[in-house]
Amino acid sequence: MKKHMGKLRIYFAASSIVFLVVLAISPLKDFFREWKLNQYEYNNLIKELPQRVRPVEVGIKQLWIQKLDRIDRCVTCHLGLKEPALKQVRQPFRTHPLIDHDVEEFGCTVCHEGQGPATTYKESVGKVKYWDQPIFPTKFMEASCAKCHKERVVPHAPTLTLGRKLIEEANCVACHNIEGFQKQWTPSLDGIGSKVNRTWLVNWLKNPKAYFAKTRMPNFLLSDEEANILADFLMTFKTFPNEATLDGLPMVLTSRSEAQREKLVELGSTRFREARCISCHPINGKGGYVATDLGTVASKASVRWLYNYIKTPKRFQPGVEMPRYRFSETELAGIVAYIQSEFVDYEMERAESEVAHKPDPAYYEKGLALFKKYNCSGCHELAGMKKAEEMGPDLTFIGSKKLYEIDFGKSGIEQTIPSYLLTKVKDPRVFSASMKMPSYEFTDEEAQAITVALLGNTGERIPEELKVYPKPRSTYSPQGEFGKLVDDLACFGCHTVFGRGRLIATDLSLEASQAQRKWIEGYFKVPYSLRPILTERMPNLFLSDAEIRVLVEYMEKVFLADSLEREIRADQDRIAKGKILYYEKYGCQACHQINLKGGYVGPALDKVGSRLKPGWVFHWLKNPQAFKPESIEPNNKLTNDEAEALTAFLMSLK
Amino acid sequence: MKQVLKKLVESQVWHSIFRHGLPESNRTRAETIFYNFFLHIHPTKVRKRSVKFTYTWGLGGLSFGLFIVLTVTGALLMLYYRPSVPQAYWDMKDLEFVVSSGQFLRNMHRWAAHAMVAVVFLHMLRVFYTGSYRPPKEFNWVIGVLLLVLTILLSYTGYLLPWDQLAFWGISVGTNMVRAIPFGLGEKISFLLLGGNSVGENALVRFYVLHCFILPVAGTILMGIHFWRVRKDGGV
Questions:
Q1: Of A218, A483, A493, B216, which one has the fewest beta carbons inside 10 Å?
Q2: In this model, does residue A256 exceed pLDDT 70?
Q3: Contact A64, A106 (CB under 8 A)
Q4: What's the gap in Å between the CA of A477 and the closest CA on chain B?
């Protein structure tokens, strides 16, 4: 019995020790937690820095963002977020790149995702079981801005801004639901049968970018058969919108005399240049990119259509932003003759004569089916057909789509939403050949930008007061004679006034405060570029004197601000003082030319005294960025005296 | 030293707690058992056969031990856990990420709970195979079965408390099974359990109260009776 008891005691002692050790594991683990080690390391690290940095008091740190309903403990280890001295140290201590948002106000995970309450690296990154929002890849970081920033141009987010621009330009909303985008204008197809050459149409349908490299029309990857059927179908639509009809060609254009013809072509060539068609239209890829390439337009469109369209563009293509030039009958004929002689695709015409085309007997039904299958009416008007409803998937909340809702096919890519979107945008049919989305041939950079913009469309609930919405669309719409002219000349196609229009050319909202009336009048007659390096230059619209008067009188009344009026007394002393300031103190000649001397970054200043108004020059010199935020002219913080002297000098240059 | 000890044993404080002398005679030994709250449940005499470890495997004692572990860890977990929809899940996450040894507490509670179900079941098997349910122990067998049911219910009600997907669907499935009870009773019982027609805030609070108060208290009372009977029938 005694022996037995001794043995029991040994068992008891041994098991007690085992228990004690087991019990010690938990407090030991607690003592050596990852975040504690990080904090010790941080305190050692900052001791070695030349700058004084406050050590951290050991303990869990957290940000409680009540309005976003988030608790982020990332700052337990990310200790140097706001410490400029720690820009070069290793993570997790490095300084956060400069952004406009305070980490204390917004926390971390609202942008970065990951598991906010976690206190270990692995768990906080969130690539763990039962956490479906792992940390966001840096590559797509700007998508998070989009949760609150709904405006088109998001500050400090160039990728997101580019993505939104591309989504708008590519007209994604023709097939997809995306919040905040409106359908873009695209040409109507009514009358296409009276406009284009069938062979051209087949080539265009098969690969639009081969004709115009910057076209917005995507490639639907049609087979030869499909392209032919669709072309045959489209060629049957010969009536223009609003029942507009093509006028007959004038006699001059149809006459066959060589000498007459040559003269006509020469006139056309001159007018073509004066009208600066290439400001908007490229020719074989060279020139502006606002409108389609004219390189081989004579082989694309019929002569009659060309003549009629240039004469009255909006009659055949309502809504198009092409100005109606005030050409005479002969000038018009000349331009058409010039186009006919220059812009021909001989190869296509040769190929066309070789192949005899036999249409499929059921081309109309099959063509209509194709037209519907690819949702052509999503973009293009044709015989009042309606766009297909819910063509592509709704993209309103694509950023928070669940992985199990997505079919990755046999693509073998990383199974995440960002990688899915990136691949899809770049190669729309890679997941399944039966998909209908066309190829936009986006570059890597563009595809990434679009992915970023799409990823930002999450269903996350954000308090309304944090959201930034785009400015409401400008309601400026001039009426009367002026309004009619503005519409006819498509001024808003290039210029912005009071928030309406495009910014290919200058904003004209303050034009009458800026430029002298005489100069504006002269400019309409003979437009020239202040900066010759620009491609898009003001065309000569060949306006009549009466029309110019209407335009200028309206501008003088509306396009100005009274606060910019200022009389500058100009005596010899002042002019001399201004000259010294110009050449010596501020060295303006580094960028501006006077009498062909000086740099060519800014516009030449000869005759600036006949162009600008003194009040404008004065205010501009005081603060150029107040008028043009992107201007690179330095703000020299001139005193009123200096600015007045400089203005007096500049205004003396007539 | 000996004198100090002697003085202590003869002091009034000592006498007020231990009314009898040291267990040196049969009488004082019996008194030690009678007057001690913790020992009074013992039978005054135990058969040598039933002391043998391989007869009982100590399964009843193990179950009781696990119950103690669960009560202690459970009480500590209650300090951090709030049974409400917005907080329950995050409190569990906080136990893992923030509370000192919080994960250890949770794991211990969880594993002890699993072990208790297993041990209680084995205990029942042992009792069955040793025929210990036979007269005069039929009543205690019934109480034992009730305790088994309570153990399983405790385990089940605890399942909802983390308020994650597993919990939500586990309870949804369970209460839907209850609905299958005929004569319209199922619907009523399910409604009573959930405090509604689906698993929500009310269900969470009900399960919490069941798990932390009603079921453990019921278990404690039944355990008292169970142990009393075991001892009086000469068990260990």
A1: A483
A2: no
A3: no
A4: 52
ipTM of the complex: 0.76
Asked if A71 reaches chain B (Cβ–Cβ under 8 Å), the answer is yes
If pLDDT is split at 50, 70 and 90, which confidence band does B120 have? very high
Only one residue has tokens 């809504």, namely: A319
Amino acid sitting at position A489: L
DSSP per position, B49-70: HHH-HHHHTTHHHHHHHHHHHH
Q: Does residue A409 share a domain with residue A428?
A: yes
Q: Which of A26, A117, A130 sits opposite B97 (nearest CB)?
A: A117
Q: Does B98 touch chain A (CB under 8 A)?
A: yes
Q: Are residues B77 and B112 in the same domain?
A: yes
pLDDT tens, position by position, A362-417:
889 999 999 999 999 989 989 888 777 668 889 999 988 888 888 888 778 888 88
pLDDT tens for residues A301-329?
Answer: 998 999 999 999 999 998 898 999 999 88
pTM over 0.90, yes/no: no
Count how many domains chain B has: 2
Per-residue pLDDT of A267-297, as tens digits, reads 999 999 888 888 889 998 888 778 899 988 9
Asked if A324 and A243 sit in the same domain, the reply is yes
**How far is the alpha carbon of A85 from chain B, nearest alpha carbon, in Å?**
29
The answer to whether A73 faces chain B, any CB pair under 8 Å, is: yes
- Residue from the list B97, B101, B104 with its beta carbon closest to the beta carbon of A118: B97
Inter-chain residue contact B101 with A118, CB threshold 8 Å: no
Of B98, B101, B164, the CB nearest to A119: B98
At residue A328, the 3 state secondary structure works out as: coil
- Counting the structural domains of chain A, the total is 6
Same structural domain, A542 and A609: no
**Nearest-CB residue to B97 (from A26, A27, A119):** A119
| Residue range B135-154: mean pLDDT, rounded | 94
Cβ pair A26:B104 closer than 8 A: yes
Question: What DSSP line would sit under A535-567, residue for residue?
Answer: SS-PPP----HHHHHHHHHHHHHHS--GGG---
Q: Is A500 helix (H, G, I), strand (E, B) or coil?
A: strand
